[in-house]
Design a protein that fits this description.
Pfam families: Acetyltransf_7. InterPro entries: Acyl_CoA_acyltransferase, Bact_Acetyltransf, GNAT_dom. One of its GO terms (molecular function) is acyltransferase activity, transferring groups other than amino-acyl groups. The chain is globular, with a radius of gyration of 15 Å. 26% of the residues are buried. The protein is of the alpha+beta class. Strand 2 and strand 3 form a beta hairpin. It has four helices and seven strands.
């Protein structure tokens, strides 16, 4: 069964947890090589997806040809995660996920991004996010300098 290569967005289900975990792990290691080595294995990350992510966040997956290729998780108006399979970056998938998140958070969306993650910063800034603050890393478990970005509808750039 194919859906002719089109990407669609749907709510994540518990059955998606192992694939979401794999995308989370491979995307982080491929796009953020400066992060400390992953201490948790796939099984542990899958359990975190099932027990924490899917219970606390509204989570969507991007699906192409019946395969999950990315996901986004929103907690209130905080975008906690947006990760893609490394091989589908720069194909509009992140934008589709971000558009879905923004539809479900009409008053605006905030997120944290590592200062070193220049690709992610450029992506969010190109979608109208602006920097609210910067931090030395004491608020994330990696202890790396980060920043808070915010998108507000109808904000003038």
């Amino acid at each position: 069964m194919t859906d002719d290569g089109k990407t669609r967005i749907r709510f994540a289900e518990e059955a998606d947890a192992a694939v979401i975990a794999r995308i989370h792990m491979t995307s982080r290691s491929a796009t953020m090589p400066y992060l400390p080595p992953q201490k948790r294995g796939h099984e542990q990350v899958t359990r975190w997806v099932q027990d924490v992510l899917l219970k606390l966040c509204r989570t969507w997956v991007a699906v192409r040809d019946a395969e999950i290729i990315g996901y986004a998780a929103l907690d209130g108006d905080m975008l906690e995660h947006l990760y893609l399979r490394p091989d589908v970056r720069r194909q509009g998938v992140g934008t589709l996920l971000l558009d879905e998140v923004r539809r479900h958070s009409p008053d605006g969306v905030s997120l944290h991004v590592f200062q070193q993650n220049t690709d992610a910063r450029a992506f969010y800034e190109s979608h109208g996010f602006t920097v609210l603050d910067t931090n030395d890393g004491d608020r994330n478990m990696e202890n790396l300098p980060d920043m808070t970005l915010r998108w507000t509808p109808n904000s003038v750039q």
